[in-house]
Amino acid sequence: MSFYTSLNGLKNSQTDLGVIAHNIANVETNGFKKGSTQFADIVAGSAQTDPRMIKGIGATVEAITQNFGLGPIEQTGGSLDLAITGDGFFAVRSVDSGNTLYTRNGAFGVDEAGFVTDGGPNRLQVYPTDADGNITGTTPVDARIPTANADGAEFVGVVVGNDGLVSASYADGTTEAVGSVALASFTTPTGLKQVGSSNWESTGISGEAKYGSPGSGQYGSLMSGAIERSNVDIAEELVGLITAQRNFQANAKAIDTATQISQTVINLRS
Fold first, then answer.
1. Checking CA distances to 124, which of 27, 102, 103, 246 falls within 20 to 30 Å?
2. Are 193 and 176 in contact (CB under 8 A)?
3. What SS3 class is residue 219?
4. pLDDT tens-digit profile of 36-57?
5. Separation of alpha carbons 170 and 76, rounded Å
6. 217 SS3 class
7. pLDDT attached to residue 213
């Protein structure tokens, strides 16, 4: 029995090491949220077992949870580099699948068609507005900046306010609102499913996304010209790495000790 108990310990340590290695590998990934491994003990006994005689049979990985704490904010100066100061998420729609993803990585840009994207096939979602910036609908749509205004003046720049209003400037000196950034929040963000590239999908555990405007409730305000970096603390991860390594070594030593005891018993019988 001790062999399997320690074997479970070895597997758990490997899982912990894998999570820590993933955190360290993403220390420079914008919008990344670190994970941590949660363990639980295992006990077994029947209804007839004396509760004073029940012994544990090892541990198991109960969950790998994500820490959605705010990461450091880096000033970049880019007009479409956005950081959220609260608990909200940017909503982006995948052109390939049509699914809505959620991210904390606010490194956006404009593609050749005028859509505001994350550099890939995902388009930033905004509330539609009129030319004066008044929100005209509660269903988020793709953010698109016209390459020219109604008078034919060419697009020259874009500004995003703390309230999420996206305003495009044109060569004739006019400014026109093209939408207001829609932020999403979740009842249980730790239930979001990681899909890579600092993106998440909603699940039955996280609940459906609730949308709101920056500067209201728990969504937080926007900072234009800034990016939220990874919230991984490299010093903390290195300490965790040492702890996981010691845990692995201790379980390996327990297997070695059990082997020696078994060998001793075999020798006594011979």
1. 27
2. no
3. coil
4. 999 999 988 888 888 888 888 8
5. 23
6. coil
7. 94
pLDDT, residue 36, reads 97
Determine contact, residues 178/58, Cβ cutoff 8 Å: no
In terms of DSSP bridges, do strands 155-160 and 165-170 run parallel, antiparallel, or are they unpaired? Answer: antiparallel
Residues 6+ apart with CB under 8 A from 147: 114, 154, 155
Parts of the chain with a pLDDT under 50: none
31 neighbors 84 (Cβ within 8 angstroms): no
Would you mind telling me the total number of residues written for the chain in this entry?
A: 270
pLDDT of residue 47: 80
What is the b/e burial string over 175-196, where b = at least 16 CB atoms within 10 angstroms of the residue's CB? ebbbbbbbbbbbeebebbeeee
Tell me the residue type at 241: L
Residue 51, phi then psi, degrees to nearest 5: -60, -20
Find the angle CA(25)-CA(31)-CA(35) to the nearest 5 degrees: 55
